[in-house]
Specification:
It contains 6 helices and 8 strands, in the order βαβααβαβαββββα. The protein has 194 residues and is of the alpha/beta class. The protein has one domain (6-192): Rossmann fold, CATH 3.40.50. The strands form 2 sheets. Strands 1, 2, 3, 4, 5 and 6 form a 6-stranded parallel sheet that branches. Strands 7-8 form a two-stranded antiparallel ribbon. It starts with 5 loop residues before the first strand and ends with a helix. Belongs to the azoreductase type 2 family.
């Protein structure tokens, strides 16, 4: 257990109220309860990215989103996969977060990615695209363990609304433990470089 809980911001790449990925995010939060102070960055009110809008100053929803990310020790992105790729609403949020390019709020920020889908590949293609976007923004993305929950509808107890699959739960425990260490290692290296 860490001396001080890490400030972790979560981004949910789905707007659906009963999203499988919302359930996955809750399962991650449950496993991180003693290690992370969790808050969420709302992406539902962000306008479509447009440099004309940006030129007039960031809208309030964008400013709030960026400030939330700035306060984080690390970010966890949980994404579905739509048509073999990243959901538009999540890509839009990352595009806003990437600006301005030389001082993105994601620059050097530790980030972990997870996702769930009814399909067999467990959001592998969407996560690959998220990683590609984050790499362009110079985020510090954790490479392993990957959380690719396929067939998620078979791993949820719909009465409780929770993931009950023991292998998935074990994977989430590893994910939380590893990301905690990843963020702490980044903090230590940043202090050493000061």
């Amino acid at each position: 257990m860490t001396e001080k809980n890490l400030r972790i911001v979560t981004i949910l790449g789905s707007l659906r109220k009963e999203s499988y990925n919302k359930i996955l995010l809750q399962a991650i939060a449950d496993k991180a309860d003693q290690k992370w102070d969790i808050s969420s960055a709302d992406i539902s009110e962000l306008p479509l990215f447009n440099q004309d809008i940006e030129a007039d100053g960031d809208p309030e929803a964008v400013t709030t989103f960026k400030e939330t990310i700035k306060q984080a020790d690390g970010v966890v992105i949980v994404t579905p996969e739509y048509n073999s790729g990243i959901p538009g609403v999540l890509k839009n949020a990352l595009d806003w977060g990437s600006r301005p390019g030389n001082s993105s709020v994601f620059m050097n920020t530790p980030v972990a990615i997870a996702g769930a889908t009814p399909g067999g590949a467990g959001t592998a293609l969407a996560q690959m695209q998220v990683r590609q976007t984050l790499a362009a923004m110079n985020a510090n993305v954790m490479s392993h363990p990957k959380v690719l929950v396929g067939g998620v509808q078979n791993k949820i107890d719909f009465d409780s609304g929770r993931i009950e699959d023991s292998r998935t739960i074990s994977r989430l425990e590893d994910f939380v433990h590893t990301f905690t260490s990843f963020v702490e290692m980044y903090q230590q290296s940043s202090k050493a470089g000061q």
